[in-house]
């Protein structure tokens, strides 16, 4: 099996066209250099160099072909060495990130990515849209390393999360809705409305928001349309199927027939959290988490 040392010895001889000078350059004995070249030729089953004590060393036809490949191989080895050392310091590798829709609309995800790309340009980042429950499954399957999720009272074993973004809520509705003519709403205005909201097979989520809204407005809020994400909810709301209580950042998503209204007396905060494995082995992933949390701390200061 050819090794990197043999390739370096061979290329040095080719560049010097002289065994003694190549040995001096490599700081090895000429006999050791000659033995390695002979072993290389034996392993390959072909002569690579023409040797003549009275003339400079020359390449055989096979030697010329092999030299080109040897140079390329050494460059790949050097690159692999560099990447390995960078990866050990968290400066190279792959980070896979799952995110909920408002991770994008709020600018939280793009801000994290922007800062991280500047400090870690050699790290490849992959982003995948996923609802919060699906992200926790993806952690188990190794599909993602980091998640931008809706916070939970309790997280799966081995997962930790920190709140990185907070915002208030708005109501999305069709521009033909009777309430669309008002500049702003109060909670009691939403009594008897058909509500659209993401809701999964769990006790937590935006169902808590509707319950709190009903308490603030003095009515019982019922979920008429359950959707998988806010984008789907906005589509139903714009078509007049009901109203959707959404994070304010979602108002950046515009489509024909849709409008957003603030709720003056409902200051219920909604959060995004950065989730990761408690014992993360990847230096690149650890570096991303550290940078994202530092960014969040600076924004709060």
Features:
alpha/beta, 10 helices, transcription regulation, 5-stranded mixed sheet, D-Maltodextrin-Binding Protein, domain 2, 23% strand, 3 domains, 301 residues, DNA binding, LysR family transcriptional regulator, Arc Repressor Mutant, subunit A, single chain, LysR_HTH_N
Note down, in words, how this protein is organized.
- Belongs to the LysR transcriptional regulatory family.
- Pfam families: HTH_1, LysR_substrate.
- The chain is an alpha/beta fold and 301 residues long.
- The chain folds into three domains: 4-88, Winged helix-like DNA-binding domain superfamily/Winged helix DNA-binding domain (Arc Repressor Mutant, subunit A, Orthogonal Bundle), CATH 1.10.10; 93-163 and 271-300, Periplasmic binding protein-like II (D-Maltodextrin-Binding Protein, domain 2); 169-268, Periplasmic binding protein-like II (D-Maltodextrin-Binding Protein, domain 2, 3-Layer(aba) Sandwich), CATH 3.40.190.
- It is built from ten helices and twelve strands.
- The longest helix is centred in the first third of the chain and has 28 residues, at 61-88.
- It is rod-shaped, with a radius of gyration of 31 Å.
- It starts with a helix and ends with a helix.
- The mean pLDDT is 89.
